[in-house]
Amino acid sequence: MTAASNSMIAIGNLVKKFGPFTAVDGVSFSVAKGEVLGFLGPNGAGKSTTMKMVTGYLAPTDGTISVCGHKMDEETLAAQRLIGYLPEGAPAYTDMTPLEFLRFIANVRGLKGPAAKAAIDKAVARTEIGGVLEQAIDTLSKGFRRRVGLAQAILHDPAVLIMDEPTDGLDPNQKYAVRRLIAEMAPEKAIIISTHILEEVDAICTRALIIDRGQIVADGTPAQLMARSRYHNAVSLIMPAAQSGGVAEVLGALPGVAAVEAQPRGEDAAFTVFQPQGAEGDTRLIDEIANLAKEKGWTLRTLYREPGRLDEVFRRLTRPDTETDASGEAA
Ligand SMILES: Nc1ncnc2c1ncn2[C@@H]1O[C@H](COP(=O)(O)OP(=O)(O)OP(=O)(O)O)[C@@H](O)[C@H]1O
């Protein structure tokens, strides 16, 4: 592992076994201040188990966890004090109101009097739950329950924030608000989130790990991961289907074109033009296609160079969890 010198979270060769089953299998990474690390992976890949170990809620079978220099196994409380954790699902204590719950958490976190009130006010404002403070948590909508959990996680303004699917169950407006909140907090913190939403990686993560069956199969910035896609630097165009006869052949005959894929799209036809593997990402191909379209009189609805498709990289590097269950047998 090459831990950055300013890393706030340093994880070395983490392993978790449940009986004979290895859920996390030698995971190493570090997170520096200002980084938002996204954990991606299919269901059952080991994301939640890793997060629970990093927060000190689950003891690893092997490996090291250090938070701002505090070793989790030796200085558990000092490490945990620096962490805010949003677990999967809804907060416990659902018969409490959000205000009672946040007062309880403030107390657990050692915040008293005006300091507790100021921390609660700030977390309530940031998560926009002011309108439901007096209503029992179990009567709240899923989105509000998730935001109460988030308020709990950020209450003590922790240096490290670990959130398991923070936007799960939120509507698009709430998702946007939570992503904005994470981006606002990011410069001062080290943040880990897990997500199934691939667009979230591009929207808020500075780096992403793809985890499959307990192992890291990719680690990079969103742009680096997208550059591993076979669509990276391909040129896509959409035109009326009525004009599209013979177009695939004409595109395929252009110099430096490795392949052309065509997909019908209702009244339109979409083409993706691939360059050979390792071709330089310059603008030559897209310029040539634009000129060709002019020459042939094609009506182009869109013409763009593909940055790469994260969903395709994800599918190529991971296997569906239906292939095996926790016993390792085919499902
Ligand atoms: N307490 C446990 N006992 C036995 N097996 C467990 C336990 N907790 C998790 N597992 C298994 O470990 C594997 C990893 O689970 P984990 O919850 O970490 O996956 P995940 O990547 O978070 O999945 P999801 O995206 O569905 O939340 C799964 O096969 C799960 O069944």
Descriptive notes:
The protein has 11 helices and 14 strands. By secondary structure, it is α/β, with parallel strands linked by helices. The strands form 3 sheets. A 6-stranded mixed β-sheet has the order 6-7-8-3-9-10, with helices on both faces. It has a 4-stranded antiparallel β-sheet with strand order 2-1-4-5. Helix 3 (98-108) packs across helix 4 (113-127) and helix 4 crosses helix 5 (142-154). Adenosine-5'-triphosphate binds at residues 18, 21, 23, 41, 43-49, 326. Keywords: ATP-binding, Nucleotide-binding, Transport.
Sequence-ordered SSE layout with sheet pairings:
Blueprint: E1 7-18, E2 21-32, E3 36-40, H1 47-54, E4 62-67, E5 70-71, H2 76-81, E6 83-86, H3 98-108, H4 113-127, H5 142-154, E7 160-164, H6 172-185, E8 190-194, H7 198-204, E9 207-212, E10 215-220, H8 222-226, E11 235-240, H9 247-252, E12 259-265, E13 268-274, H10 284-296, E14 302-305, H11 310-317
Residues 18, 21, 23, 41, 43-49, 326 line the site of adenosine-5'-triphosphate.
